[in-house]
């Protein structure tokens, strides 16, 4: 598994290993497929499926609660810069982040979450965002 | 469970709640441009604080850079947005 130097938490049976069959929630319901890779993003882990889709860990069946999450301080400048380069590259090549579970969608989601947490230290809450939207999709 | 593990989990839960409240755990497909603007707003607030107190040179530079990145991504996302239907073409 691609992992940062220090993981927030380890579990004996989680995450599943590459090649294992996993179930997850998709826009059409519950799906079962083969896990290709587990990769840390700037904030949370993404599960890369054999068909290339990228599913955030919290949508995988059996994921511990709360899901593992990195501290902002664990993300290096180099890692952030590489993420920004990938985002610009994907945007520049005409990819649309509005394609759910695709790489651009996943990476932009994490970059926005990371940047928000990074600078929100003294900023106020964002207007009109009070409900948990994670389960509404 | 040890105290430090428990503290870590509480911290993680709080982090998830912050992100969830901000609508940033899983961004709705039609809300990317709006969420980018929201995050830009947070960065601008922080940048203003840093400028007001005239400190945090490195963080100031970093915030300004992030703002530029977000602006660039916002423009790309808007440029690639699907065009609304033209009523005259119905």
How do the helices and strands line up, and which of them pair or pack?
The complex is a heterodimer of chains A (137) and B (90).
Chain A (H helix, E strand, L loop, with lengths): L20 E6 L2 E12 L4 E5 L4 E3 L20 H16 L10 H17 L18
Antiparallel strand pairs in A: 1-2, 2-3, 3-4
Helix pairs in contact in A: 1-2
Chain B lengths: L2 H19 L10 H21 L4 H23 L11
**Helix-strand topology string of chain A:** EEEEHH
Structural class by SSE content of chain B = mainly alpha
Mean pLDDT of chain B: 85
Strand content of chain B: under 5%
Return the structural class of chain A: alpha+beta
Our count of helices of chain B gives 3
Low-confidence regions of chain B: none
Q: CA-to-CA gap between the ends of chain B?
A: 63 Å
Total of domains of chain A: 1
Number of helices of chain A: 2
Major beta sheet of chain B, specifics? none
Which blocks of ≥5 consecutive residues of chain A have pLDDT under 50? Answer: 5-9, 122-137
* Radius of gyration of CA atoms of chain A, rounded to a whole number: 15 Å
Number of strand elements of chain B: 0
Largest interface: A-B, 47 and 42 residues
Q: How would you describe what is shown here?
A:
The complex is a heterodimer of chains A (137) and B (90). Chain A has 137 residues and is α+β, with helices and mostly antiparallel strands. Chain A has one domain (21-118). Chain A is built from two helices and four strands; from the N terminus they run ββββαα. In chain A, a hairpin with a 4-residue loop joins strand 3 and strand 4 (54-56). Chain B has a domain at 27-79. In chain B, helix 2 runs antiparallel to helix 3. The mean pLDDT of chain B is 85. Chain B is 70% helix and 0% strand. Chain B has helices at 3-21, 32-52, 57-79. The longest helix of chain B is centred in the last third of the chain and has 23 residues, at 57-79. The interface between A and B is large, with 47 and 42 residues.
């Amino acid at each position: 598994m691609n992992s940062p130097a220090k993981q927030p938490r380890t579990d004996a049976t989680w995450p599943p290993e590459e090649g294992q069959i996993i179930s997850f929630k998709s826009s059409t319901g519950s799906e079962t497929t083969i896990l290709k890779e587990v990769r840390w993003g700037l904030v949370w882990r993404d599960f890369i499926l054999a068909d290339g889709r990228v599913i955030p860990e919290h949508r995988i069946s059996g994921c511990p609660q709360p899901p593992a999450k990195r501290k902002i301080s664990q993300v290096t400048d180099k890692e952030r810069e590489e993420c920004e380069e990938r985002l610009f590259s994907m945007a520049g090549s005409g990819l649309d982040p509005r394609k759910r579970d695709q790489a651009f969608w996943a990476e932009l989601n994490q970059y926005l979450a990371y940047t928000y947490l990074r600078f929100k230290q003294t900023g106020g809450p964002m207007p009109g965002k009070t409900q948990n939207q994670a389960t509404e999709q | 469970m040890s105290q430090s593990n428990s503290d870590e989990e509480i911290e993680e839960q709080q982090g998830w709640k912050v992100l969830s409240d901000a609508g940033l755990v899983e961004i709705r497909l039609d809300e990317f441009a709006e969420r980018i603007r929201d995050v830009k707003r947070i960065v601008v607030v922080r940048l203003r604080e840093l400028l007001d107190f005239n400190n945090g040179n490195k963080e100031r530079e970093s915030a300004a850079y992030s703002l530029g990145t977000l602006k660039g991504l916002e423009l790309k996302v808007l440029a690639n947005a699907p065009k609304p239907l033209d009523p005259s073409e119905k």
